[in-house]
Each structure stands twice: as C-alpha cells, then as structure tokens.
Amino acid sequence: MKILVVDLDTEWRGGQNQALLMLEGFQARNHRAELVSPEGSALGDRAKARGIQVHRISPYFSRASAALKIFELAKPGRFDIVHANEAHAVTATWLARTHRRVPFVISRRVGYPIRKSALALSRYQAAARILPISGWVAERLAACGINNEKMTVVYEGVEIPRLPPAEVRREARLLWGITDDSPLLGCVGVLLPDKGQDLLIRVLVDLRTEFPQARLLLAGDGPDRSRLERLAKQLGLGDAVIFAGFVTAMEPVYAALDVFLFPSRFEGLGTSLLAAMSYAVPSVAFSTCAFGEIIEHGRSGLLAELGNETSLRNSAATLLRNPPIAKQIGTATRARIQSKFSSAKMVDEMLHVYETLAPKNT
Predict the structure, then answer these.
(1) CA atoms within 13 A of residue 288's CA, in its CB half-sphere
(2) Is 26:3 a contact under the CB 8 Å cutoff?
(3) Chain centroid to CA 135: how far?
(4) The pTM is what?
(5) SS3 of 221, please?
(6) 17 to each of 47, 57, 161, 169, 248, how far by Cα in Å?
(7) What is the pLDDT of residue 358?
(8) Start-to-end CA span in the chain (Å)
(9) What does the mean pLDDT of the chain come to?
(10) What is the rounded CA–CA span in Å between residue 6 and residue 36?
C-alpha cells in the first residue's frame, strides 16, 4: 500500500512517537509510507534519519501550507490512504478535500469533546474511518455524535524491549545517583498540572515515613517544572526528587525503577505507562480514563482511586513492601503489553483498517 501520514506538531510527544512507529512498521512490511511535516519538527527529523520520505512545509500557517501540499500529493493513484495523526493535520487534510479523492483516516488521541459546530463535526464526518486510541476515547467521540460504525479502536503500542540485565540496572541507577537498593519510584511525561506530578511529590513525603530512602524520578520537562521544584523544596525533599528533564534514551529511566506511578487525571491512553509495563516495572495508575483497559487491577498493575493521595500512596507502598508480589505483577505487566499493546500489533491492526478501505490496492 501507499500511505501518506500527516502530522503538523513540531514537538516530540507520544503521538509523534506513535507516528514514527507506524511509518517504520509500514516500511518494514514493504508498504510505501511518506510523511508531511513542518520544517524543524522533531518527527520529521527522526523520520528522515530513518530513510522515510518527508515532505516539508512551512512552520508558519502550517495548516494552509499542509493543505496545499496534501492537495498536490494526494492525486488519484498516488496514495491509497491519507492518515491525519493529530488535530491540526485533520483540519489540513479536510481543507485539501482529500476525502473526495482518497480514503482519509483520523487518529483520535484525546478525550476532549469535539466542538459543537457543524464545521468542526464535518471534518470528522468526512473521514472514511476514525481510529480512537482506546475504548474510552471512542466513548467520548460517540457522546459528541460520531457514529460507532465509523470508528475502529486501534490501541497505541510500544516496542517490546529486552529485559535489562542486573548490570544494566545498576548502571541506570548510578546515572540517577542511586548507589544502593533504595526504592526508586518514577514517572515519565510532560510537566503539566493535569499530569499530576505534584501529587507524586506529596505522596513521596508520606511514603518516606515508612521508606526513608525512597526517591522519585521525574523524567520530562514542561511549563510546570519550576512550580514542582518549589513544591519539593517546600516539603523538605531536597535531592529526594530527581528532575531528569527531557530524556532522549529511555532505557536508563525504566531500567532503574522499582515502581512506576502514572498520576494523570485525563489521558487518552498513556504510552509512558505502556513503556514502563513493557520493561516489567510494576505500575500504578488512577482508576479513570482508559487505564482500566491497560491494567487488570491486582494482576498486571494496581489502580488507585482517582485523585486520592492515600489510595495512591497505599498502592505504591504495597508494591514496595512485597517484592515477590511486585515481581509477579511486573511479569504479568510485560505479558499484558506483549499480547495487546505492542507496536507490531498496532501496525498490523492499522494496516487491516486500511485494507478494508482500499481493498483493490492490497
């Protein structure tokens, strides 16, 4: 198949990582995959470095520039599918009237409602298929008036890494200044108020009454960093909270952790949670959004009561107090990701959707 992916974000976040996994997966299966992306975008740079053809557009007035580029590229017979990977790409692809010439699909990654206007809904109604990344996102779309028959849930996926041997784990912990067996909890994500990292800092204060050497690793950067740093100092945590900033190579993060905590209150799925679980790190998330689709409570992780610091603290403490149980959960966690949330499975399911829309080109 010939596939054109459109992504107009310039920053590197979960959706862009998924787009790169898709593009690489399509090419590995001998399909031709190309990308429309702004000049200077992290996704475009990484895709080009991996040998994927990238059609660059101006980062200024990017939706208009992208619409013109897509109109030029999506001539009959050149591509079988055009895939809009995020909201700005949806608008640009719709403006290019792509749906009149080529089947056009949309990845929907967020649970925010679509604006209640005919113009906003028309972009989604023009798509041949909408691909929510979880059942929860699909429910939110249905509440906005999107027909269930128009949607196919395709879970985001992560690459399944090799499990780090003991020496790699030791080196990873040394990188963060952990020289002994002190408990290390962690979280990966953009530092934003709705991601809940402030809750983890407050939970750590309570946890350290039972585990005085426990530390918290926050991997990621963002506008909330200075506030979080002030909070850690105000609570007397000093070096107990490690602000790692933006991390390019993630293995030293996941390999070092004893427990992964994911306190987001509003998330379409959560690829950093999937990644931690793929490393067999026992994980805790809130019982909300799509997290119950990922974690089978008590088997492949723990679900805490939404926004409840005590519940989150008790879940983390349960794993720290019971290493055999934590190990058992970690093993089940990795198996869960391998069976349902691998990038290979995501790519295969995406291609199956494409094939149903363009059967003559398979």
Answers:
(1) 14
(2) yes
(3) 15
(4) 0.92
(5) coil
(6) 10, 20, 15, 24, 12
(7) 84
(8) 6
(9) 95
(10) 5
